[in-house]
Specification:
This protein folds into two domains: 160 residues, Aspartate Aminotransferase, domain 1; 267 residues, Type I PLP-dependent aspartate aminotransferase-like (Major domain) (Aspartate Aminotransferase, domain 2), CATH 3.40.640.10. The protein has 442 residues and is of the alpha/beta class. The protein is built from 14 helices and 16 strands. It is globular and about 65 Å long. Helices cover 39% and strands 16% of the residues. The strands form three sheets. It has a seven-stranded mixed beta sheet, with helices on both faces. Strands 11, 12, 13, 15 and 16 form a five-stranded antiparallel beta sheet that branches. Bound molecules: 4'-deoxy-4'-aminopyridoxal-5'-phosphate (PMP). The site of 4'-deoxy-4'-aminopyridoxal-5'-phosphate has 14 residues, from helix 5. Keywords: Aminotransferase, Pyridoxal phosphate, Transferase. GO terms for molecular function: pyridoxal phosphate binding; transaminase activity. This is Adenosylmethionine-8-amino-7-oxononanoate aminotransferase. InterPro entries: Aminotrans_3 (IPR005814), Aminotrans_3_PPA_site (IPR049704), PyrdxlP-dep_Trfase (IPR015424), PyrdxlP-dep_Trfase_major (IPR015421), PyrdxlP-dep_Trfase_small (IPR015422).
């Protein structure tokens, strides 16, 4: 396996200078919050697969639901004139779960990038159906991550994910992120920074012309960009600006949904109802590739009332509303609610955040620690605290590898170590992550 892995499997991020082991480690099995590699080495999974395995790896009801659905109906298209029972049932469950976020209808996809692409396309179409043909541009935030399709890559706020694939979608503008540690305003007070970012958004809208902008997309807490937690006022300010200028607000909840932040959505923390939400990852906890773009009833109604041709949605995937994915999502949501995994995310997230802050006191190379809203955390490594110069990639690799040997998987993102363990993680397992990191940093 190791030989074939090196030779035949094309690994993303596998370029020379890639940070992690080459070829990547083979993960063979998993149980609870622990993963085991081909060499039999077991570690606590500090990244939940990839911000997604919320219920952990041993959720028997999801495994059973998948097996039963494969027996009954392994696949049928829900794209062109047919649908299936689990998908219908799931749309009802999601409506209930996200009613307080203002969400009404669900359009199902096979993952997060598809969900973002769906939101962007439907946002443009929404304006066209209303006769507002000039609204085609998109706004997003620097440091944001919205997937790898051309639309998502175009609104991504990290150049690394864009540069090799240009030219991307024209008319996408990236606004300052509310990132107190590094921001163009040099502002460290989060509330004041939120206001400055909001003012920058208004400037850009006025400059572009409000009637040219279709939508604004943001993560309630930026994940892959380094777990950037905005001031509590920030998303509300953005909501207010979007409403004022007739711009649709898309909350990208691919990471923050389904309990990761300690509640079922990230938007809820900030008391905001977006017009659209994108979801994936925790919707099935990774047991099956699946995603959704939910919209408010007000958005959906525009499509229903519009001219028949304009309002037809020529968008969908072979695997939209895949019955096995829908069955996995239904079981995952029920188990997540039964176990109240969001309630565990909050205290365990606090434990992780406090533990990381204690590591900052001990290790000079930690420049910033972020988290505190459920189980999403980051430590930003620097070579000099005063200049904030990012730590060398080799330093991050060394910390990563030592932490792995010491019993915890973390993730490297730029000069950050990112953490998003399963939401069922125990107090003792968080302690293992912290001590493994301590060893790596030492
Ligand atoms: N949006 C966000 C906020 C994400 O974090 C991700 C994946 N990390 C995506 C979209 C893309 O999802 P996927 O990888 O499932 O296509």
């Amino acid at each position: 396996l190791n030989a074939h892995n090196a030779r035949h499997m094309w690994h993303p991020m596998g370029h020379p200078g890639a940070l992690q082991e080459k070829p990547p480690r083979v993960i063979k099995s998993a149980d609870g919050s622990t993963i085991t590699d081909l060499n039999g080495h077991s570690v606590v999974d500090g990244v939940g697969g990839l911000w997604c395995v919320n219920v952990g790896y041993s959720c028997q009801p999801i495994k059973d639901a998948i097996a039963a659905q494969v027996q009954e109906l392994p696949y049928y298209s829900a794209f062109a004139g047919t649908t299936n029972a689990p998908a219908i049932e799931l749309s009802y469950e999601l409506r209930e779960m996200f009613a307080s976020d203002g969400m009404g209808r669900a359009f199902f996809t096979s993952g997060g990038s598809d969900a973002v692409e769906t939101a962007l396309r439907l946002a443009r179409q929404y304006h066209k159906v209303r006769g507002d043909h000039g609204r085609t541009k998109f706004l997003s935030l620097k440091k944001g991550y919205h997937g790898t399709h051309f639309g998502g890559a175009s609104v991504n706020g990290n150049n690394r994910f864009r540069i090799n694939y240009e030219p991307l979608l024209p008319g996408c503008f990236h606004l300052p992120s509310p990132y107190p540690y590094r921001n163009p305003f040099g502002e460290t007070d989060p509330a004041r920074l939120a206001q400055l970012c909001a003012a920058a958004m208004v400037d850009e809208i006025e400059f572009q012309g409000a009637d040219t902008i279709a939508a604004f997309i943001m993560e309630p807490i930026q994940g892959a960009g380094g777990v950037i937690v905005p001031h509590e006022s920030f998303m509300g300010l953005m909501r207010e600006i979007c409403s004022r200028y007739g711009i649709l607000m898309i909350a990208d909840e691919v990471i923050t949904g389904f309990g990761r932040t300690g509640d079922w959505s990230g938007s809820r923390h900030w008391g905001v109802q977006p017009d659209m939400m994108t979801m994936a990852k925790g919707i099935t906890s990774g047991y099956f590739p699946f995603g959704a773009c939910m919209v408010s009833d007000a958005v959906a109604e525009v499509f229903e009332q519009g001219d028949a041709t304009d309002a037809s949605i020529f968008h969908g995937y072979t695997y939209s509303a895949h019955p096995v994915g829908a069955a996995a999502a239904l079981a995952c949501i029920r188990e997540s609610q039964r176990m109240a995994i969001n309630e565990n995310a909050a205290p365990r997230g606090t434990q992780l955040f406090e533990g990381l802050k204690a590591l900052k006191d001990k290790h000079e190379m930690i420049g910033d620690v972020r988290g505190g809203h459920g189980l999403m955390a980051a430590v930003e490594l620097v070579s000099d605290r005063d200049t904030k110069a990012p730590a060398a990639p080799e330093t991050l690799t060394a910390v990563f590898n030592t932490a792995y040997e010491a019993g915890a998987m973390v993730r490297i993102g730029g000069n950050n170590l990112l953490m998003s363990p399963p939401l069922v993680i125990t107090e003792q397992e968080i302690t293992i992550i912290l001590s493994a990191l301590d060893e790596g940093l030492s």
